[in-house]
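Section 5.1 Outputs to date
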Amino acid sequence: MANNTPTLFLTALLSLLILSAGSVFANHPTDATPEEVARAAKILADWHGDDRGGEKRALHLVYWTPNDKEPVPEYRERLSGIMLDIEEFYGKEMKRLGLGRRSIRLEKDEDQLLRIHLVTGEGPTSEYAVQSGNQIKQECIPYLKEKGIDPNRETIMIFCNLATWDEEKKVFRHKSPYYASGGPQGGTAWQLDSPTLAIDRIPLKEPIIQDGQYGRISLGKHNSIFIGGIAHELGHGLGLPHCRETKSQKEQFGTALMGSGNRSYGDELRGEGKGSFLTLAHGLRLASHPQFSGSTKGLRLPVSSEIRDLDLSVEGKQILAKGTVESSIPCYAIVAYYDPDGGSDYDAYTATSVPNENGKFQIYSPELPPGTKGELRLFPLLVNGSIANGGMSRTPYRFRYEVQKGGTPDLSSYLTRAKLTPLLDALRSNDGQGVKKAAQELAESEEGVVQEIGARFLQENTAPKKKASDPSKKTQEASLTDFAPASAAVGWGQPLLDRALRPAFLLTSGGEVFSRGVYAHAPSTYQWELGGKWKRLQGHAGMAEGRSGSVVFSIHGDGKQLWKSKTIKGGAPVAFDVNLTGVQRLKLQVDDAGDGNGSDWGLWLGPTLSR
């Protein structure tokens, strides 16, 4: 008998290699490779060169105290230690990511402690609360301007002396602002100070204190939470949104700073976890920030970018986005966020890509939680620190996705919009025949929303609206937009049913396309005479995609408010379900949220009447 041992061995080895390859390469990498990150860093270095823009940038620290309270003893010593540790954290993380040891640029005085500007407030402690951030900032502005600092054009951190500490009872409470916002052109972060905070207390497992927000915790954990909070809110002041870590990142690095990492900073020093880390997505965003690059070249330069030939597809359990980015100044990276509905954006995953020399890129999502719906957002990063087309938090590249129970993504909403492209192109170019042809093709398709939108555009101005108070007795359910409103007014443009104003035309909110709806730029009021014929109104209310306003929706029946939304700024639209039994006159109202009506494109989506 022939000896087949080598053949069997090779067959088994080949099978093992195939299985191994399947387990290792089942998923595509979701972040740029070290070589690609190095290319991004070179793009930044080449563009900035020796021209640093002429503005010196540093992080400006302010210690604010109400007029009836002295600063906490040794605040400069403690805050210097805290901020130097945070500077070290950011520097080490940027270096680990391959972007060089860049960090927040702190200023020191002659005694080698950090420069901290002391400002006394105009009122006593009782006049301030968590919501007093802007009031406190306004009180700091005159002092800062005397020092040659413009808080609206630079990044500042305000430590507010509004905490209380009972040393004997070991009880801590605070009513300090603890939030931030900003971007490359400037930002503000509000923090607190307390005698309990010092960098050398993070390792302590004792004593146990009573924290007014977090309950009984060690003094070390208390410091992790609030010093981590300083690092986290600083991130917001620099323009970073929330995000979370993937499972593999959690195992390797710990918790993402801009997720829940504000509560795990330094946990490793107590043996209670791996601590906090910076995602590559956020490291790339910071790499062009003047605070980190040391350059203000082109900081306020008008810029533009566009992703051409964008295509989304599904590969296994990942979403692949690819296209070509074109911009007025170099684009050095693309960042993607995959944000499940609800939970704010704390649970958003990230992925990154660096375009090649022709601007082409492809970016893979991580495996997304099964059974969830969410929004994919793409941001081109430009070398002057800008994220074009909507600023630091908004982008026109927003797409809805749904993840099936087995973990496979569903891109139906994106595919729907792709099919509508010929109609939108014809509308933008005022091509009447093109609109008719595209609408006819859509109306003859088999897909629900696409077919309905095609039919709507074909019927526009040809099918007169009926009266809601005199429907056919056979009609048990109907779109509210089938009926002519008794009156209609909007804050910008003209009232429209089943379409929005150009250039969007489509009723799109949170990445989802709706075939029926009402364009309602605030302040907006539409009224229908129902004659008591209907029992229920259901639908959704949302901000038109790509718009940066904030609105409040309300529904009224015969002068009585039946439903009111919270303030809506974007994201997934909110549902409403209202009892209309006996209602004669229905009013749909959209108001600005108290900040003016700029870009307040409210939409009533899929409003459906039923008996």
